[in-house]
Amino acid sequence: MVSSFKAGWLINPLLVLGGLFLCYEGVEKIIHTLHTPKAKDAEQAREQLIHTEMDLHQFENEKVKGAIRTDFILSAEIIVITLGTVAAASMLTKVTVLSLIAVVMTIGVYGFVALIVKLDDIGLHLTEQQSDFKQKIGRGLLAFAPILMKILSIVGTAAMFLVGGGIINHAIPFIHHFTEDSVAYVQDIPSIGNIVGAVTPTLINFAVGILAGLLVMLVISLIKKIWPKSSKA
After folding, report:
1. How confident is the model over 160-195, as pLDDT tens digits?
2. C-alpha dist (Å) from residue 75 to 22, 56, 70, 213
3. Residues 158, 118, 128, CA angle at the centre, nearest 5°?
4. Burial (0-12, 13-18, 19+ Cβ within 10 Å), 101
């Protein structure tokens, strides 16, 4: 918050860096999904699980670290955006607004995530009850949990591109002007112009997010290839 008084010019660069990270995370998730081998049947899945050399505990830790890292970036993005919005306000206003956002994020976002994580545990607990009604609810939760996780994974990945791409869109003038010109152009289409014009910014933000994520991944891949060579020199 102190930096918002002395270095307000840092807000946009921080937003762009956070946006690039979100886009990179989105691309990484897609590539990981595409390159993950899928078992053809239950037997193959069981064999794959038995013979895998991956430490499942380490795998879970990596997933948790990735989730925490992404949540941290999203939280930082929200804080920076808020600081930019109330940049001209008094210190009391900034403290009040940021405190309210912190409470809402903690209770709302992380509470919702905790509920999702424990959904299968709740379902398992209900299946162990004597009541047939509770057992049916438990079995329903157990069946619904993986579907919900899949949906949230897809929605979350799309949100990374939309948020990251939107930030980059507004930060780079020629992309922002291109978006405005595109909206103005498609709005002249008879009958559906207004609908297409409303959707166009979202589509452009999504495309910008994917391209930015691919670019960041390319740069990181090049650095990983070059760095060992340069360190040996």
Report:
1. 898 889 889 988 899 999 999 999 999 888 888 889
2. 12, 28, 9, 19
3. 135
4. middle
